[in-house]
Amino acid sequence: MQGPHNFSPSHHDDPFRSAVATDMKQVEPVQHDSPPTTVTDHEGAETTKPAFNQQVISDQEQHEKGEIRDRKRTPSLDQLLKERSEELTTAQKFLGKADSISSAEVVRLVEVLNAEIAHQSTFILDSLTYQKWTGSANDLEHSLKELRDLLGPWLYERLWHRLNDPNLEFDESDDFLTQLVLQTGLTNACKYIINHWYPPFWNEGKMFDRVYGDMGRKVSQVVAGKWRALSSTHLVVDRKANKDYLRGVLRNLITAVGGPVQNGNSLPPDLKNKVDDITRKALAIHEHVKSSFTSMDLEVYSIPCGTPFDASQMEDADGPNAGGKGKAENDVRQDKVMCTVEMGLLYKKRVSSGNQGEFRDEVGIIMKSRVALVDARDAPRITESCRQL
């Protein structure tokens, strides 16, 4: 019996019409005039649009807040960028700094200074009036003690005995000793000015020596040289203090060779001008060797008293090259150095030691120092004096 069913028998008998009816039911929602969001046969369809709009509004607010934060942060970012640019510019200048003068030019400056010291020593010698020491032995010892490091033990001992001799009579033979004392003392004083970091404040420069020495064992010449050049540029040299230092040295030298200066403790104006000119030349070399070179280190040098003569490092001031009859370069006799009368110039470079990250100093002579050699009969005395130093 078919009563409970409402379907027509023809529907079951016609598969084509059944399929069409099914397709029409499937496309019916698409053909509806209302928007998809108003369809009610899908639960929750009308709540889809408000949720989407809320998300869009939230995203826009977050974006606007982000833009506000970026605008607030822009000045600080610009400032940071400016600071970093300045740092990079400074670093580029530091890393790109090259030698601003050649070693040949420094050689010429040292030669001029050596000649000036020799000339002024001769001038002082010619204008000097010898007189016996009239002060106390303690004052004499104090005056000479300040010169010991500048003169070396042999000249120091000669001056001490001469000034303490109650029967002293000055003659022409004293002129040679006086010339050596003046020239050697001024030469070594200028060497200190040129080589030290912060002359004449010797102790204050020791910190830089320690830092630079430690750096030399760990970094290349380029890095160390540029650090030294940059550091020296910002160390302002006290020119007045250096003038006072060299004036004091000359005053003590004159006292040691001929008695107190005639004008009390002050040098005559003409001598002040001459020694100040020497100071200016020494400071000019100091600035070049400390600040103008990065590829190597330059130093002026003198030869310590009692050192055996070595033609690879020094010349005899009275040798054939100087027009004298002294020691030639091929002379192998072991003469001793009495004092240095002209400073030389050497270079140092940090080169790889062969071990990774380690460096060593390569040293070479650019200009030889000139020395006065001790007479053979005085050799035992100078050796003993140097041992007591």
Describe the protein in words:
It is built from 13 helices and six strands. With 389 residues, the protein is mainly alpha-helical. The protein has a domain of 200 residues. It has a three-stranded antiparallel beta sheet with strand order 1-4-5. The N terminus is likely disordered.
Layout of helices and strands:
Blueprint: H1 9-13, H2 15-27, H3 48-96, H4 103-127, H5 137-145, H6 148-151, H7 153-163, H8 173-195, H9 206-216, H10 221-233, H11 239-258, H12 269-291, E1 297-301, E2 314-316, E3 337-342, E4 344-352, E5 359-367, E6 369-373, H13 379-388
Parallel strand pairs: 2-6
Antiparallel strand pairs: 1-4, 3-6, 4-5
Helix pairs in contact: 4-8, 4-12, 8-11, 8-12, 11-12
Characteristics of this structure?
single chain, 389 residues, mainly alpha, three-stranded antiparallel beta sheet, three-stranded mixed beta sheet, disordered N terminus
Give a short overview:
The chain has 13 helices and six strands.
